[in-house]
Design a protein that fits this description.
By secondary structure, the protein is α+β, with helices and mostly antiparallel strands. The chain is built from 2 helices and 6 strands, in the order E-E-E-H-E-E-E-H. The strands form 2 sheets. Strands 3-4-5-6 form a 4-stranded antiparallel sheet. It has a two-stranded antiparallel ribbon with strand order 1-2. A hairpin with a 6-residue loop joins strand 5 and strand 6. The protein is globular, with a radius of gyration of 15 Å. This is Sarcosine oxidase subunit delta. Pfam families: SoxD (PF04267).
Length: 93
């Protein structure tokens, strides 16, 4: 059975319609942050196993950026899908 993702705009769609950008947890440093802070943000990434959050782009659908919470280890279960703009608003509250 194909993996399915429920896009908040298009409904249930096959995962092949999406592309993954990567980890959605890093927080961008302030404009005046140190070179070390920018280096860590751009180049240093954890590679966790289990429940993670990632940016996904619905390339063959609405073309919106989404934040997908899923298991990357065993089940590949998708726990939640949020529009990236809504996710960003929640993060700043």
């Amino acid at each position: 059975m194909a993996s399915l993702i429920t896009c908040p705009h298009c409904g249930v769609r096959p995962k092949e319609e999406f592309s993954i950008r990567g980890d959605a947890s890093p927080v961008r440093p302030a404009a005046g942050a140190s070179d070390d802070a920018w280096n860590a943000y751009v180049f240093i990434r954890d590679n966790p196993k289990g429940r993670i959050i990632e940016h996904w782009h619905h390339t063959a659908g609405c073309r919106r950026w989404l934040v997908v919470e899923r298991d990357n280890a065993s089940s590949h279960e998708v726990y939640s899908v949020t529009d990236a703009s809504e996710y960003a608003k929640e993060a700043t509250r």
